[in-house]
Structures are given as C-alpha cells and as structure tokens.
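User: Quick one: structure for sequence A, then sequence B.

Assistant: Sequence A:
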Amino acid sequence: QQPAKLPRLCFLTFDPGPLQSTRFGAFFDGLRDLGYVQGQTINIDYLTADGQAERYPALAAQCVRLGADVIVTTTTPATQAAKHATQAIPIVMIGLGDPVGTGLVDSLARPGGNVTGLSQMTPSVAVKRLELLRELVPQISRVLVLSHLSDPIAAPQVKALEDTARSL
C-alpha cells in the first residue's frame, strides 16, 4: 500500500534565518499542538526572502512548483506575489497590512478569491495606537515610527499617523 501523501505548507517570509529562529514560533507551535509534525504529518517548506522583497515572485512560483496545499505569508508583498502566482492554492496571511486597501481581498466580510487570514496593521489601528500613546503619556512630544517602506501599507499608515499627530 502506498503511504498517504503528506499535506505541504509553504511558509513565505521576509525574515532571514532558519525556521527555528523566527518570530513565528507560536504559529509553528500551534501547528504542532494540532498534531502537525514536520516530516510525519505535514511537510513544511520555509522559504525566506532574506530581507529582499524582490525575491517574493520567484519564491511564490516555487511554492506552486512544490505542490503546496496551502501558502502562508507574513507580509503584504509576499501575499501579493502568492496571489499573482496562484488562484487555486489557499493563501493564509499572518497579521499583515490592510488587505482591502492593497487589493488582496474584496472586503473583510467577503474576501473572495483564495486569500484569507489576519490583519492588524490598518491605518485606523495605527492612528488608535498613537491616540492611546498620547493618553498614556500626555507629555509626549515626539514619536518615531519605523516602517518598511516597500510594504504597500506603509505609506497610508505613515500619512494617517502624520495627520493624527498634527491634530493632537
């Protein structure tokens, strides 16, 4: 009898380094807690752009060639590359920018297509964080915002923060 084919998860990230050293340890721990053990019940391909966003299209194409059953992405550019590479393989984004504003999904209520996941960085949330900071530290006069400008959500977030800062 032929052994059953293991599902294949392709993890596309910006973060350099091996799977074990990533900030996404909780994600992989959660998979393990659900019974997904690398090489036994699932195959995980950890593909990193090593800090070079221009590598995403080739990495997304590699996920398709590998026969991924699901692609997990950690940045908006990675998700855009995966969406461009396939309309058939489910794409799960982990906590990235505004998926509606960047055209990844039609709406939060009805995403459509093959992209789903979590978003935590919409401009309105960034503004709320700044407002909360002002409430917590009323004497604050300067705030430094670090952003990865190759991410399409960066410019709208920075603009929203600048507009809010002017009004505070």
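Sequence B:
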Amino acid sequence: MSILKKLFGKKDTQLSESELEQFYLEKDKALERALGKQAPVVGHAIIGFQVGGTVDMYYYPHKNKGCIFASQELINPNEENPLPNRLGLYELVALTKHNFEESDKLGEGNFGQIERRFCGIFTGIGNFSFQAKLEPGETCELPVDGEPNRCLIFDEYTDVNEPFKVNGNNYGLLLIIEVHREEMEFAMQNGSQELFKKLKAKGYYPYSDLDRPSVVN
C-alpha cells in the first residue's frame, strides 16, 4: 500500500482518538491472553508502519521454548485492514527457538538477528496483506534488497491459551514460517501439509530458525 493511500485513504466511519487508543489497548490484552505474558519491552519503529516505516515488534516468551513475535498494527478500525482470509482479519506471528534476550542489540546475538529479520518480514508481508488475500498453507517468496529472497509458508497459529478476541470480535493469527528454498519448492509441489509433517517429525515446526538442515535433502 502506498504511503499516500495510508495517509488519505481513511474510512468514512472513524473512531475517535480515545476510542482507537482503547481498541489498541484491548487488542494488546487479547494478544497477551492468547499468547502468554508479553515481554517488558517493545521493538518500536523509528518511522511508523502506517506512514511507510516498519512494524513495531512485540515479544511473547513461549511457554515451552523460545519466543513468539507478533504484530499489532494490521487490524485498525480507522485504516485499511488486511484482505480477510478464512481466519477473518488477522495479525502476524512467528516463532524462534532462541529465548527472548532484552540485552541483545538490534541485529546482534541469535535473538537480535532473527528479531530484525522478522521485523523486515512482518513489514513486507503486512504491506502485501492489504493487496492480496494470504491464506494458511500458501507459500510466498519475499524480495529483500541486497539479499536472497525470503522463502515463507503461512499457516494458522492455533497453539493459543484462548481465542484471539477483541471486544467480542474474533480475529486470526497468521503464522509465518521461514523455510529453506528446497522446502518451499517441496511444499509447492506436494502441498504445505506434507512439508509440515516433515518439519514436525524433526521438531522444527512452527519455528523459523534456519540454523538447521533441510528436511527434504
């Protein structure tokens, strides 16, 4: 979506500033109920997502291992939303086996590196979601300036403590899994569920860490 469209393509019915702030507060609480206690810091963008910058990053240490990344800026009553898929409107999530480390500088350390990687992925997919319907099970190749394209597969994230519901409305969580290129190509040929079976057998699903061998070699 263009910056101008974000700025001026407003809906006719707008929430007031206080109503919108309350909606975001309720959504934040709903994500915490679904994903677990949120980490005490937020990866705030220097330039906001709604005006062409990157998404803010929210962190939820996983109950078993690692950390869940989540977006909180796709569902916005005053802006365009993602094109609804079979989950309805949704936010993005991804998982790493690396534990949340507040001490990691951006782009440094195991956690810091994958956190920055997914800030870029969430931003790219977030913008794309306003133009295309992204369904669980689909594959996606995300271009990155100066680096190899990211190979991604979507799924519904269901490992939640309770449904993601805000003010009585149900929303979805679209899981993004980054995979090796040959794994994405396998999914395109054989279906994503067949790849998910292989990833689960090795304990790699639903994580996006690529410091592992491919399951289709």
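The CA atoms of residues 35 and 159 lie 8 Å apart. The first helix runs from residue 3 to 8.

User: Thanks, that's what I needed.
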